Amino acid sequence: MTDSSPKISQAQMYSVLIGASLMLTMSMGMRQSFGLFVTPITQSIGVSVSDFTLALALQNIIWGVTQPFTGAVADKFGVRIITLLGSVLFAAGLSVTMVATGPVTLIIGMGVLIGLAMSCVSLSLALAASAKVVSPAKRSLTLGAVSSAGSIGSFIAAPMAQSLIVGQGWQIALVGFLGLCVIMLPGAYFAGAGDKKSPRPLPGAMDRDAGLSLKAALHEAAHHKGFVTMAIAFFVCGLQLVFITTHLPAYLMLCGQSPGLSATALATIGGFNAIGCYLLGWMGGKLPKQYLLGTVYILRSLFIVFYFMSAPTPTTTVIFAGAMGLLWLGTAPLVSGLIGSIFGLRYMATLSGIAFFSHQAGSFVGAWGGGLIFDAMGNYDMAWKIGVAIGLSAGIAQMFMQTQPTARMSAAVPA
Question: Quick one: DSSP state of residue 151?
C-alpha cells in the first residue's frame, strides 16, 4: 500500500525546521525562566511559595495530560492549527498572570492557560513535525539541533526577565514575554509547513504506517515493554529539570547569593544545552539511545549531589549550570528517536505525548513537592535527596529497556 500524499519539498523542509526552532526558542525560553518570578510575585501579591509552585505544578501536569490529545489532533489535522492556538493561549496566560491578585488568578494564568499553551508549542509537536521532513539517516542529528533551539531561549529570556524585574518590576517583565509571544507566532505558522505531506522514508522501503489506526498504535505502545519503561523513566527527567528551574532561584537567595546569579545560571543552562542537545542528537545516530538516556539520568543525579552538598558560590553555581545544561533537553531527541524507530512516524506526536505525560507528572512533583518540602522544613535538603535517589534508579532501568521495533516496523524491509 503506498501513500499518495505529495512529498516534502526542500523549501518546506527548511520552513518546518526553522519554524519549529523559533517556536521552541520562545516558548521554552519563557517557560524555563518562570522561577525568576517566584520571589517578586509572592512578595507582591501576598501568596506563599507553595501557592506559586502549585500554579507551576498545575501548568506542568495540564501540559502533560493534554499533550497526547493535542498530539492526536496534530496527527489527524496537522500541526499548524495547534501551534497557532498555543501561541495565543500563551499570551492569554501571561496577561492573566499580570493582573493576578491571589492564588486563583495565578493558577488560571500561570497554571491552566500556559499549561494548555505548552502542550501546543513545545517539544513534542516541534520534534514530531521535524522528524517527518528529514530522512531517517539524518533524523537523530536534526532532532538534536531543533531541541537545542529550546535551550537558546533561556539564554535570551532569563537575562531579559531578570533585568526588567530589577529595573521595572515583574509585570513589565511579563510584558516583555508578550513580545516574545509575538515573535513565536510566525514560527508556529511555519512549523506546520509539512502538514499533509508524506514523510521522507528510507530509499526503497515499504510504507508500514499506511492504514494504521490510532487504536492499533496505542495497542502497540501499551504492549511494548521498552516504551513503558522509557515513559516511566521520563518521569525523572521532568522532576529534576523543573525542580531546578523552579527552586534554584529561591535556593540561591536563601543562601545569600545575588538575584542576578539565578538569571546567570539559567542562561548558562540554556547556552550549554544548545551544545548538549546537538551533541546527544549526533551521538544518538551512532550509539544506542537507551544507554545515552540512562547515562544522562545518572550523571544529572551525581551533579546534583556534588552541588547541593555544600553551600553554593557563584563559581560552583555556574559550573553546575553548565554541567546540567549539557544534559538538559538532550533527552527529548533521544526519546523521540526511539519512538520513531520502534513505532514509525504516523502517530509519533500522540505516542510522544503519552511519554511526555509521565515527564510532566514528574514536573508536577518537582515543582509543587519542592515547594511543600521547603515550606515544611525551611530548606531543600530532602527534596534534592529524593530527586537523586529516583534519578539513579531510573537511569539504571532505562539502560535495560527493550528497543526492538514492532512486528509491523520489522516488516518494513526494502521492497
Answer: H
Of 65-74, 201-210, 337-346, 387-396, which has the strongest mean pLDDT?
387-396
The domain ranges of the chain are: 10-189+213-405
Through-space distance between the first and last CA atoms of the chain, rounded to whole angstroms: 11
Work out the average pLDDT over 100-109.
Answer: 92
Non-local (6+) Cβ contacts of 213 within 8 A are: none
DSSP letter at 212 equals -
Adjacent-strand bridge partners of 7: 198
The residues with which 205 forms a beta bridge, in sequence order, are 414
The contacts found for 314-321 with CB under 8 angstroms, 24 or more apart, are 314/257, 314/261, 314/264, 317/252, 317/257, 317/261, 317/264, 317/265, 318/264, 318/265, 318/268, 320/265, 321/264, 321/265, 321/266, 321/268, 321/269, 321/272
Q: Find out if CATH 1.20.1250.20 is the number for domain 10-189+213-405.
A: yes
Give the global pTM.
0.73
| DSSP conformation letters of 7-44 | BPPHHHHHHHHHHHHHHHHHHHHHHTTGGGGHHHHHHH
pLDDT of 376: 87
Grid coordinates representing 398?
532505562
- Average pLDDT of the segment spanning 128-149: 82
Q: What is the crossing angle of helices 331-343 and 225-254, to 10°?
A: 170
Closest C-alpha among 53, 154, 164 to residue 110: 53
DSSP assignment letter at 5: S
Looking up cell 495547534 gives 82
Question: Cα separation of 235 and 243, whole Å?
Answer: 12
Eight-state DSSP code of residue 206: -
Report pLDDT digits (tens) over 366-379. Answer: 878 888 888 888 88
